[in-house]
Amino acid sequence: MGGGMRVVVTGATGYLGGRLCAALAAAGHAVRAFARRSSDASGLPASVELAYGDVTDEGSLATAFDGCDAVFHVAAAVEPWLPDPSVFTTVRVLIHF
Fold this sequence. Notes:
This is Os03g0184600 protein. The chain is of the alpha/beta class. Helix content is 25%, strand content 20%. The chain has one domain (6-90): Rossmann fold (3-Layer(aba) Sandwich). Mean pLDDT is 84; it is low at 93-97.
């Protein structure tokens, strides 16, 4: 990949995440898109690797982050009308490389 980094993007199927994946791939980086299985990943570039999981599941995060140089954490809970607002504090990730 010409010196590019291996990166993972959480929230990869969202508006910001999808555009970030495309820009990173176009810049020559190896991109791993982290998304829920229920998400529509059809808009991602073909070169992007998919890793399925949930940002509240530490095991799936560890698997997705394995071998990566950087993480772009753009997953977000954006529905302010959620019946359980604690989800906003749950979607936090502590990453150690």
